[in-house]
Amino acid sequence: MAVYFDHRVEAPDSSGAAVLVSWHSSVCVLAVGSVNASTGGSVDLYLQQGEHVELCHVERGFSPSLLQWHPTKPLLAVGWETGETILLSHPSGEHTPLPNNTHTACITVLEWSSNGSRLVTGDQAGVMAVWRVDARGKLQGSPLIKHDYSKPLTCCIFRPPPPAEDVAMLARAAVSGDESALDMFNWKKSNKGAAFALGSQEGLAFYISTADGSVFSVDEQARSVALLSVESAVQKMWYSKRRAVLAVVTESLLLSQFTLGPEGFAEEISKVKLSSRGGQHSDIVWTENGLLITASGEQHIRLWDVELDDHYALSLDESLGFEKGELLNCVSFCTSKQVLAAGTSRGRVALWHMVTVSDQKGDSKTQWKLQTPAEVEGNITQLQWGSSSHLLAVCSSSGVVILSEHVMCSHYSQQMAAVQLTPTHLSLANFNTNTHITFHTDTHIRAVQVTKDMVAVWNGKYITVYEPSGQTLHSTGSFQCESAALALHEENIYTIEPNRVQIRTPQGTVKQLLVFSEAEGNPTLLSVCGSYLAVGTDTSHVRVFNLTRREAKPLGVTKNLCELIPDLGALRSVKCNASGSQLSVLITQVNGRPDNKVYFYDIELDTLSYFDFFTGRPESSLAQSDDSQRTQCEGELAARCPVSQFWDENEPRLFVCETVPVNSDLLSSSKSQTEKEDVMVVMFFVTQEHGLLLQDSQPKPATLLSLLALDTPYYYYICKLLFRRGGLVLPDLGEDGDQGQVVSTPAATPQLPSSSPQMVVRRALRDFVGLESCEKQTRDAMLNFSFYLTIGDMDEAFKAIKLIKSEAVWENMARMCVKSRRLDVARVCLGNMGNARAARALRDAEKEPELEAQVAVLATQLGMLEDAERLYKSCGRFDLLNKFYQAAGQWQQAVETAETNDRIHLRTTYYSYAKHLEAMGDKNLALVYFEKSDTHRFEVPRMLMEDNVSLEIYINKMKDKDLYKWWGHYLESQSDMEAALHYYAFAQDYLSQVRVHCYLGNIQKASEIANETGNRAASYHVARQYEGQDEISQSVHFYTRAQAYNNAIRLCKENNLDEQLMNLALLSNPEDMMDTAMYYEEKGTHMDRAVMLYHKAGHVSKALELAFATEQFGALQLIAEDLNETSDPALLARCSDFFIKHAQYQKAVELLVAAKKYHEALQLCLVQSLTITEDLAESLTVPKDSTHLSEAGRKELLEKIADCCMRQGNYHLATKKYTQAGNKTKAMRALLKSGDTEKIVFFAGVSRQKEIYIMAANYLQSLDWRNDPEIMKNIISFYTKGRALDLLAGFYEACAEVEIDDYQNYEKAYGALTEACKCLNKAKGRSEDEADSRFLILTHRLGLIKRFIQARRMYEEDPVESVRMCESLLEEKDLDPAVRVGDVYGFLVEHYCHNGNFQQAWSKIEELRSTRPNINVSLYVSQTSLEALQNAAGIRLVYKNANTHAAEDDEEVEEDENINH
Fold first, then answer.
1. DSSP designation for 63
2. How many beta carbons lie within 10 A of that of residue 123, not counting itself?
3. What angle, rounded to 10 degrees, do the helices at 936-943 and 961-973 form?
4. Among 342, 630, 968, 1332, whose Cα sits 20 to 30 Å from the Cα of 240?
5. Is the dihedral of CA 1448, 1454, 1457, 1461 positive or negative?
């Protein structure tokens, strides 16, 4: 927490009320302009603590109007209301006036250029001048330009220069090998252009505005051009370099934005009226990022983001000390700290810290967190942050105060704690005596150290030593010292000087020097723990000294941590433990960012280890042995950074540190601005044997500021300090409660009484809750138990506590088991506690599958509710978490959990919450949750039963039918029948309406309601009423509408209403139908109705019997249609006989089949020639597993069915039944008769029987196999599979004949006959005589064909031999079956004709005609040869019976086919 030291400026007596303040941008010098009504005005300069610079005092008889510092040099431009302008130099006090004739009216514009080489001045008369200032800050004569705008000038800004080249970036790029960067450094390369500009260029163009709303642009050549115009006087201007946009705010708070072109062109892009009171009193600030902040004397300040076009307002919070109605007058924004300061009308400085948060989508959003205010006297009129970000100048009605921000000092040692309250007040707490003192010092407090007998305070220059004396402190010594670090031990004070540490007495006498070498550096950090001093230097060296003796002795050697820690920039904090064996270090990295690790240096072993809070893990060699604990560590501690560290004052193993998220300024939260920081307090055991062991981690309590110390069994925390209505609120958050006291403190010189509440509170360690006052033996035993439990050594853990009998100790050990999740140890602890209830709950929790859920039950029993809640969440058992919240009375959390994660119990949760609210007397809210649980229809009337008015209002508001009905019942019970009827009508409860109307004797109205609505219950009630009045017809009518048919039937029977009886019976159930049928049968009338009712009731046998007895054939026909195989077989047979007699054979067959009389059904089909359809055939087919027929009988029946189908020509169905009967041969014959070639081929393929293959092949031979290769292929395949080689041979012979007769292709014929011979050769074993004779004949035919083929082939080479071979063939007697005679003669005739021997050719023709008189010569001799021959012989051939030969051939083919078949 920060404390603001207030330094009132040491103003001269002649100075009046301050009206202007201005900080220099780089030097800590404040300029203040004052006005004295009697003497005039003055300007003074002050240093950062308010010291007046006497040489820099300027007085005039008139008031100063503007102050403006040079951007780099300590040179102040002062404008006066008379038009005089001077340049005041610091610290010499030299002032240079501008020429007197330049301005004659009040100065309204003073603006320096970015480098300070130009100064623009302007006055209320409209005169503007630009002055040149040299590098030494001297004014160069007359103005460069002077222009008269004739209107008062109001505002001026310089246009920022274009960005210059970054030399450092170019240098890095050049070193890495970037050629373009290297070229830019090479001035001699002409082709690369001019060299780059070193340093930033100065922009000399500026914009200036006048009171009539005009804005002018003045360029570098001093040319002024009118740029734009707005409605009223311009109050502020801002230029956006990124967008090249000029934003203008007028006195009426109208914000306009203009885009600027390259030639002085401006175009308005937006215009917005800012919400505010407006006027001259508005204080307006622009930030670098385009955030416009205005304060207009209202209770809030307004912010407008020009870049994002977003606006919002910030207001004060009374809980932080602001008063109701407090107004905000002025604002100032510190860019480096991102802090907005605002001055109020009650003398408070409100501070908002700007943070950027990112949501889950990655979008960033700005949030402002209001801090505790600082207070001054009077109404604050002006604020300005100084060159140093911790300085803030406040100008109020009482004067000027410089607020200097410092970190609040605090220290703890030996049960003494000191906390700074204000710049001059300390809160001291002695926990040994339980006393609290608030002490006022004479100087500002910059550091404080305490021991049990001494308090040392340092103000930056002096150290003052105090000793407690009762309820006060008295000074025992004071000495000058500028040491930035301070430490105490017993009677010694430790301070630092370059390269050494001084050990002083309380009076300041140096007793001993601890010298550090030049390489070891200058000491900067001091820390005492127990009797050991830890020292850290500016060169990152550390060393520990033993203070137990008279003189301090070093332990080990001075260690250079830069050798062990990479990227070490500087040491942030160095602490040692109580035994001096371990040193913990927090560092800052080279890049200036805090390191995420905390380092531990073992002095004895000279080793360094660390815990990385970014990953949530120690280094690999120090990993936890318990995986669950390591997982917990990673989940809770990952992505964090340590900010403070402490060792236990007495226990050397215990170490604790505070951690925050890595990007703690970017907390992704949408909660209020007073949200607590996410600070986690983490404790470790640190030993040489086991390294780092995570012992505990818990969030810092929200009501506390920070951790101060660790002293077992307590954490010591600093309370948050709040200002409220001129007083200090010091929350007393100790063990006695969370009370706070308001202590009245005047803002200027606060006086705090000694009885003020404590600022430091103790919180027991989790393992010591309830054992805060235990003796040292028990405390050590608990620490040892916790340590051994952490490392998993249960034997040593129980050994450490075996002598402890206290139930409180066992309870604390059970609490440790929650943290370590050791349920086995917890059972032992609960047993020693005698806590049977908790032991039972833990045993019952074993049924839960998640370990965390079981541990949560233990935590609940031990009162560790936060741990139980966290465990339930971690294991995802939101159902148990819901029950936990309900049991703890946290109903809002229970409802939220049910709504988001436990929706299966949502209605139950609503109901339980409603019951709770009812018990608490909050019936209005209970109504809401009864409705959400959908139980309001009976719970709300029960709850509001005693308040009838409220209940009726609720029912009318809900308009729920069930509630209307309930309320109607209630009113009926109260005999309010009219109102009851009214609500019954709303509820559409027709039964209740009818009941009430009947009760009132209005049965006619009841009948109307029943008829109109058709409500069954209402109709039944009316029917009963009419029956009681003996109105039978009406009663039957309403019984029928109520579907109470049995009652209607009863009345019809009793009153002989037979005509209505039949229809009612048909509408009713089977029992009523049977009863009515029996009624008709007994009366002997309407027997057809009796038969129909028996049939409809399902009593078919009785219906048939009655139909046969009364010969009702029409009814019998209808009944038979419903008969099926489940009917009585005898009944089926009887019905079938009936249908046979009446020639309805089809129906008779169906009934016979249903009766399982298959043979009789089939015989009836044969006798009566009934067509057997596929459905009938299937119904006649008995299933294989049927018990009615044996397998043989089943096959016989199937064959009979198939025979019948064959007779009827249904070959496909016959094939199917033959196949089902297993007779595939007959199935094939049936299929052959169908002529379905495709199915024949398929059936043959799947049957795999020889006979079927042969039958199929024989069938296929009857087809046109000559022109269908697929058929020929199947024939050969089937003969082969059927092993009918002789038939196959015959087929090959037929193929050979086709080749010869049709195509004269003797080569293919020869091949076919060769295959036939092969087949016959294989078939010799079956019938040798026949096979041998056929084989010999085929062999002879093959020989003849072969000779003829050879003769034809030889003709080209040896015609004579070829002719001779043909002549010899003609001499063969049986040539013709093998080789056609005509082909041989034709060959010879062609030969002779070709050689011109027509005589010989003619003789061969005559020879052919003599042997074969009817032969057609043209079939064997070409037409060309015949023409040549006839022309040579002069004779024309005459053909007789030209077709005779063809006919003979056909007969021969048919003969052959018959043979083959």
1. -
2. 24
3. 40
4. 342
5. negative
